[in-house]
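Standup, Tuesday
Yesterday: got the pipeline producing structure tokens again.
Today: sanity-check two examples.
Blockers: none.

Example 1:
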Amino acid sequence: MSDTPAEGTTPDRPDEAAADESRANRRKVREGLVLSVKMDHTAVIGVVDRVRHARYAKTVQRTKRLYAHNTDAELKPGDRVRLQETRPLSKLKRWRITEVLERAK
């Protein structure tokens, strides 16, 4: 038998824990406009996605309403925010607000 590990397996390395910490965060990040802040700790964010129409090759805007956890009570409709995907926080809420990019005028 040789000292090399079997094919498809990795040898035990002491730096495995360090590799896990340097692993990239694969959570989705979106930017959108605040549409509503009428719920407690929740904001409704409109995210615009521009897609190309399959047949007519024209660019079409599709808006998706995302429910995001809002710890900052100072948000107002019209603010531009950055969202990050998170674990399910309620029936519809799967995003959290990471930063406010631009305040409403």
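Example 2:
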Amino acid sequence: MNFPIHVFILGATVFAALSPFIFIAIREAVKRQRQEIARDLAAVFDIAGQTSQRLIPSFEFIK
């Protein structure tokens, strides 16, 4: 298969232009997923409003 060189240049240009947006989209998806997990953990640790008495330092750091 002999592709002209401009096809490879076009492909590299498209990849270079789209890759920052792809990385940002992946980062935002991971961030959203981690926020959901933190909310689920907050619901587990919230026992009848006793969160002020039961502080868990590592969880407070995550929040």
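Quick observation on example 2: The mean pLDDT is 82. The CA atoms of residues 50 and 60 lie 14 Å apart.
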